[in-house]
UniProtKB/TrEMBL annotation, chain A:
This is Gluconate 2-dehydrogenase. It comes from the Bacteria. Residues 1-24, 215-229 have a biased composition (Basic and acidic residues). Residues 1-27, 215-237 are annotated as: Disordered. Signal peptide: none annotated. Pfam families: Gluconate_2-dh3.
Automatic annotation (TrEMBL), chain B:
Residues 434-548 form the Glucose-methanol-choline oxidoreductase C-terminal domain. GO terms for molecular function: flavin adenine dinucleotide binding; oxidoreductase activity, acting on CH-OH group of donors. This is Choline dehydrogenase. Keywords: FAD, Flavoprotein, Oxidoreductase. It comes from Methylobacterium durans. Residues 125-324 form the Glucose-methanol-choline oxidoreductase N-terminal domain. Belongs to the GMC oxidoreductase family. Residues 13-24 have a biased composition (Basic and acidic residues). It holds the Pfam family GMC_oxred_C. Residues 1-34 are annotated as: Disordered. Gene3D superfamilies: FAD/NAD(P)-binding domain. The lineage of its organism: Bacteria, Pseudomonadati, Pseudomonadota, Alphaproteobacteria, Hyphomicrobiales.
């Protein structure tokens, strides 16, 4: 049987408990590699287009629907306030719907994606008014989460849902659309330490614990400064 | 060494050609098609007008259709191969971006239902010249011989009308064509000659599989895979960029787009991109050609033979949409089986966290594999088999999986996602049972071409569930033995659709015969994964290509003895005349 270390405690887990969201890859900015051999012209073009979408840009959702969507996105993928490179999650969801980019399938119990979103936002707002006497986006985190959990459990039944089950809406529309929007953004890539676009150069070091000099260096506890220095050099490769 | 200025990926030009969008304007035409191996280059292409009665019009240019187009053209037949998708230039059109690259998938609307509705779109099939092989993960495996006689030898599913020894030869042909990189000796099944190119270096995620297998005392091997481990012509070796399921932008991947189709063009076939076939026309019991939508209007291509190769959903959809007074239930459907026996493969996974950095985004996702449970039948409480492989999900797919398969959102999700670089997983490709109730039908709703969209109905049977349990439990042990912690199961994933126009020996229980020729309409052929009576426990594309090679040889043989009744017999001179 091959050897592997079984640590007494899980360093990653302990770190997470102290600070649920550490700066695990300090100084890493995947965009610093944009003009190097890891990005081809097409990649530069599509990422530039994504970065040009502002947090308030919306063409598909109405001004009534917009604050509800923004509030939902904040609960599904919360962002640390003040972090540079704010991810315009709601605007990215809007962008998908406006551009008519489809997934290629939908459950028989769901209407077409645009219709599902409109109906779902309206229904969540109606549920908020009924339960708390306020709009969804006016509620605090706790109340918003409570409603979202109820949707997830399929327990919401305001007539505004019509024949759409709230759990199908939550699991088939809200989660995939919102989560994919967040993790399609370079700021999220920095957060999780993904190497990023890599054509044509690719990667060389494939083994356990090996990192190419153009990949993100992870900050091991107590060695944050080393990681920061390595990450600042990433673009020079 | 690659020199700048040779027109390959290493040149990495700063700008793209502006205004050149193959989704809007067809690229194949004016006597030329893209040379996909070189930036901005073209190759000459023979072209037919709609009134030319070509020997074969092929609907779909993926694993089945693209392979067949090359082989038939090389046998001297006139061939026009139509695809609804664009003609991509991988070196110029492919971004390293998950969201953007969803342009490769078939994302036109479909409805899913049944007890276990399928995930389609990115999980399913492509809409590109080259078909799904443009975004496939390149795993290239042979069937276990007994699977071709599953009913008689193993007691489940159905027998194929094919002999495994014949298939073994065709597998060899496809492996040579794609220069499969694989191990010197393969641990399972009958002897095969060594793979043309050496196996790839293992990634950490592949080594996790190896560790687990060794700990449990079962065999494993580097995966035979269709990406180059050494240069080949204009194609460079794999650079381990890890975007294989989103389109390889270096051309290391040996897809139908950059292997069979250049051969097809050279042999005189026409490839027609952005050409959506909506109906096959028949007259007096024979197919006469296809109606297709291109550049904003419907046109009709005459043909002596029609081949449908549109993937397991579009193939039955087209056959059903082509219903006429002569064939009110759709074409080739006297058995009532068109669209039935849709058989997918299980794709459940186990995931765990490792102390070491894994960074599984590097390299092709599935560099190591074990087929142990495809060849070992003892200790199973189910019929059929499975293999499992290492994995390498990219960020948006990984985020979506955490949210939808595991129910994580909010702080729990973003915190878990920070462990991305420490995660490894094992994912199964398992053999589900063919069931008549799993099927493709036409829905009321229509698409952008005003054609009825497909409804895909799917439910597991008890055997499928037993296989899921076995595979998940076994993979969990293996991952644990490899050092994985906090292991969780991804239970509801499937892949690889097949079986909606199955082949067989009996017209009452199958749609086509061993030659992929429909029983009902002698000049209508079906050549893609739809013809599988059972799916086996390995990824299907090598088998689809092997069947296409065989079909082309059979058609040549049938033509030579006048059995194509109406189809022109091979005349190599005619097909090659354009090139001189
Ligand atoms: C993400 C992913 C990874 C995969 N990885 C692997 C792997 O590692 N190994 C493996 O063996 N398999 C893999 N597969 C599966 C494999 O790609 C398919 O099984 C195989 O390509 C199917 O071949 P086909 O000929 O049936 O259809 P396809 O290759 O999908 O070709 C069908 C073509 O027909 C066209 N078409 C359909 N209808 C029409 C119409 N009406 N008019 C005109 N054109 C039409 C489509 O545009 C498409 O280009 C993977 C699939 C996916 C989605
Ligand atoms: S890992 Fe290899 S095959 Fe996959 S996209 Fe990169 S170069 Fe292509």
């Amino acid at each position: 049987m091959p050897e592997h270390r079984i640590p007494a405690s899980d360093p990653l887990k302990t770190a997470r408990e102290n600070d649920p969201r550490r700066d695990l890859y300090p100084g890493y900015d995947v965009l610093s590699k944009r003009d190097g051999p890891s990005w081809n012209a097409m990649t530069r073009e599509v990422i530039a287009e994504r970065l040009s979408i502002g947090p308030e840009t919306h063409h598909f959702f109405t001004d009534d629907e917009w604050p509800t969507l923004k509030a939902i996105c904040e609960r599904i993928v919360p962002q640390p306030p003040g972090r540079p490179g704010w991810i315009p999650v709601a605007a990215l969801v809007d962008h998908k719907l406006h551009a008519g980019e489809r997934d290629g399938y939908r459950y028989a119990g769901l209407p077409e994606q645009g219709e599902a979103w409109r109906r779902g936002l309206q229904a969540l707002d109606a549920e908020a008014q009924r339960a708390f006497g306020a709009h969804f986006h006016e509620l605090g985190d706790w109340a918003q989460d409570k409603l979202l959990r109820a949707a997830e459990a399929g327990a919401l039944t305001d007539p505004a849902w019509e024949d759409m089950a709230s759990d199908l809406f939550f699991k088939q529309r809200v989660l995939p659309d919102v989560v994919k929007a967040y993790y399609a953004h370079p700021t999220a890539w920095n957060e999780i330490g993904w190497g990023g676009p890599a054509s044509p150069r690719g990667y060389v070091r494939m083994d356990f614990g090996r990192r190419d000099p153009w990949e993100a260096a992870e900050a091991k506890p107590g060695h944050e400064e080393e990681a920061r220095r390595a990450n600042l050099r990433v673009s020079r490769w | 060494m690659r020199l700048p200025g040779t027109g390959n990926a290493a040149d990495n030009p700063q700008e793209r050609t502006p205004g050149d969008d193959p989704r809007q304007v067809p690229r194949a035409g004016n006597g030329r098609a893209p040379n996909v191996m070189r930036i901005g280059a073209w190759v000459p292409m023979r072209q037919y007008v709609d009134d030319d009665e070509v020997d074969f019009v092929i609907v779909g240019t993926g694993a089945g259709g693209g392979t067949l187009a090359a082989k038939l053209a090389e046998h001297g037949f006139t061939v026009a191969a139509l695809d609804a998708g664009p003609y991509w230039r991988p070196l110029e059109d492919f971004a390293s971006d998950e969201m953007h690259q969803s342009k490769l998938y078939w994302t036109d609307e479909r409805i899913v239902d049944g007890e276990n509705p399928l995930q389609l779109g990115s999980n399913n099939s492509g809409k590109s010249v080259g078909g799904s092989t443009v975004h496939f993960a390149m795993v290239s495996l042979r069937f276990r011989p007994d699977w071709f006689k599953a009913r008689s030898l193993l007691g489940y599913g159905a027998d194929w009308p094919l002999d495994w020894r014949e298939m073994w030869d065709y597998y060899g042909e496809v492996e040579q064509t794609l220069k499969i990189a694989g191990p010197v000796t393969y641990p399972w099944g009958p002897k095969r000659s060594r793979y043309p190119y050496r196996a790839h270096e293992l990634s950490a995620s592949a080594k996790v599989l190896a560790r687990g297998a060794e700990a449990l005392g079962i065999a494993w091997t580097p995966t035979p895979i269709a990406t180059l481990s050494a240069p080949r012509g204009d194609a460079p070796p794999c650079v381990y960029r890890g975007f294989c399921t989103l389109g390889c932008s270096t051309n290391a991947k040996q897809s139908v787009l950059n292997t069979w189709l250049p051969r097809a063009l050279k042999a005189g076939a026409e490839i027609r991109d952005l050409a959506m076939v909506g109906r096959i026309e028949t007259k007096h019991g024979r197919a006469t050609g296809v109606h297709y939508h291109r550049e904003g209007r419907w046109r009709f291509q005459r043909a002596r033979n029609v081949v449908v190769a549109g993937y397991a959903i579009e193939t039955p959809r087209l056959l059903l949409m082509s219903a006429s007074s002569e064939f009110p239930d759709g074409l080739a459907n006297s058995s009532g089986l068109v669209g039935r026996y849709l058989t997918v493969q299980g794709n459940q996974a186990v995931w765990g966290v490792f102390d070491e950095e894994i960074r599984s985004y590097k390299g092709p996702p599935s560099l190591a594999i074990t087929e142990h449970w495809n060849y070992e039948d003892r200790g199973k409480d189910f019929s059929g088999g499975y293999c499992y492989m290492s994995q390498g999900p990219l960020p948006t797919l990984w985020g979506k999986t955490q949210a939808t398969a595991r129910g994580l959102w909010g702080e729990a999700l973003v915190a878990e996602m920070q462990r991305y670089n420490h995660v490894a997983g094992l994912k199964v490709v398992s053999e589900y049972m063919p069931q008549a109730r799993n099927r493709v039908t036409l829905a009321e709703e229509t698409d952008q071409y005003r054609l009825p969209i497909a409804r895909v109905t799917y439910s597991w049977c008890d055997n499928d569930r037993a296989m899921n349990r076995h595979a998940l439990a076994f993979m969990r042990q293996a991952l644990e033995a490899a050092g994985g912690r906090e292991i969780w199961d991804q239970e509801n994933d499937t892949c690889h659709l097949n079986g909606t126009a199955r082949m067989g020996d009996d017209p009452r229980t199958s749609v086509v015969n061993a030659d992929c020729r429909s029983w009902d309409i002698p000049n209508l052929w079906i050549c893609d994964g739809s013809v599988f009576p059972t799916v086996g426990g390995v990824n299907p594309s090598l088998t689809i290509q092997a069947i296409a090679c065989r079909t082309a040889d059979r058609i040549k043989a049938l033509a030579a003895c006048g059995d194509l009744s109406g189809a022109a017999s091979a005349s190599p001179k005619r097909a090659l005349a354009w090139a001189s």
